[in-house]
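Hi P.,

Sorry for the delay on this. The queue was packed all week, but I finally got your sequence through. Input first:
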Amino acid sequence: GAAGSSGSGAGQGDAMDPDDMLPLVYEPAAIAAYWGVRPVSLLTRITQLTTLASGFLQGVLGDLVSDKVMKVELTERERDARDVKRAAQLRQVLTRLGPAYIKLGQALSIRPDLLSPVAMVELQKLCDKVPSFDSKVAYQAICDELGISSVYDVFEDITPEPVAAASLGQVYIAHLKERDPKTNKRVKVAVKVQRPFVLETVTIDLFIVRSVGKVVGSWFPNLKRRVDIVALLDEWAARFFEELDYVKELEHTERFRESMAEELPQVIVPKSYSEYTSRKVLVSEWIEGEKLAQSTASDVGDLVNLGVICYLKQLLDTGFFHADPHPGNMIRTPDGRLAILDFGLMAEIDNEIKYGMVEAISHLIHRDYEAIVQDFVTLEFIPPGTNLSPILPVLSKVFDQALEGGGAKAINFQELAADLAQITFDYPFRIPPYFALIIRAIGVLEGIALVGDPDFAIVDEAYPYLSKMLLTDPSPRLRESLKYTIYGKEGVFDVDKVIDILQAFGTYSVNSTSSNGAQQPVGPAKGTGGETLKLLAGPDAGYFRDLMIDEVVKSIDALSRSQILALLNAMGLRNAFVPVLVPGAMRPFLPLQPMTSEDERVVKNIVKVVNFLSSSEVVTQAQGDGLVVPNPRALQQAASGVNPDVFRDVLPLLPSLANEVVPKVTSKLVNRIAARAVRSLFV
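Then the structure:
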């Protein structure tokens, strides 16, 4: 599509061709063709930019002369103070330069591979609030866009002044003339109106910055190899252009709502009204509430956890995620639910990246750094074909430091991202654009959560959702990740990892199914164990059950022999022999097979799993003879604490589950016992 230039301030003074159009999607060639024939406008804008930025540029030039020419030595404190001063100046300059530079500064503020930590912190303070434009102009824009003669043709009332104004548009509160068909109540809406001439203002600045980027790339080829400024700008600008199209924002909103509706109904997304929406006007439901970051309600921590689940679902399940989750876009509603606003800026990742992130976390849990380096190729941090041997020791050191404080779950994500960014200066390693957006989103969630919980760790909070994916996703790659998580690089069954995953799944179930986002206290038998039993019996856990059947067979075999040996020991028949009545057997009598260390490990695993599922020590292993005995008191307590809903949900699944599992277990158990007998008799 195309937009006619309206003779805006950006284009005045040049001869105008009425057929000459600006593109409505990001097309660098079309933008260059449009502004390339408007030298007066370009010269005027370049003069404005140079004048506004002159103080900052003089300061940077002075710093370079001081450092490189005059060789002035600064203390670390003096250098930090100077960096803070320059970063603050840059923020002020970008604010004055206009919407394209404000948005670009915000995008750069999440790139630890491009800016120093000081500059990132300062640019993250960039405020997108600017003075509002005249409401008469806004009202006329509404009329022009919706094809009406007066705003009161659609709205019963509308605020005379905007309640919020940003660089791209401003928002009014209104009531629709039409009533809610279900309740017959008035419908309160937010009306977002785009600023006049935004397209012209933004595209001329994009053209200038892109031209400068091409020159810098040709002058400094080494810099271009590490950071391709033009490619980064194009990737960012394509998403930025989508923010200028409110119809696209409405489509994003509806797609997001549908993706959350089934699994996370307590996440509120404002309803949009397509009949009152155009490219420059968006009418959507007004959500009452307070910013989550400013709320002092007791359930803020729970809502942050819900926000983590919501974001992980976007990132790892749908692949369609909110790319601008600043604190103002997360609202706590009066009834304690989480509302998410503003879907102008969204991003999308494919299955290769989604599954690659889960695989990387599985490898991180086992500290398999060689596999993680390969994961970074999949995740587009490292170009394919790169020699990985020099990068492996560097990444190993980074992850060793990150895992030092308590394993994968205790990783400080922001520090890890900063450490990874440092590698980009010395190795063929880059921060892909989608990952920069993830860093920003996680930083927002962490920032809100740490106020109420200084021990908040994003990976720990994310683990329940990851466990749900590993246990239930049918993707072959995620099934391999589940197997790897349980068996590790060496292929040894780790019961603690299984319990960890099942426990995390129970936590996810409790967090995600609470009716309004505020978790009610849930006892372990009624929450974690009950949800785990439902999972194990349900259709989604088929692959996990198949993995567990081999362990169940080993468990039954080891436990039955353990109990027999323990009973014989108690009866004083420790050295008993069993007569062999098989013709051709090499021995007429066989001693009872002693328990191996593997058998003992399996029996201990059984005790752990049974006690986990019952949320109590219902069985114990006696010291000395190793006899596994029930604990009557614990059994009684566990039985009295069971949620009857669990039985109601699980019982219908048991017949089909028995038909699936019992034949497999029986067959494998018979084969195992027969194979051991043959070895004992004939080998």
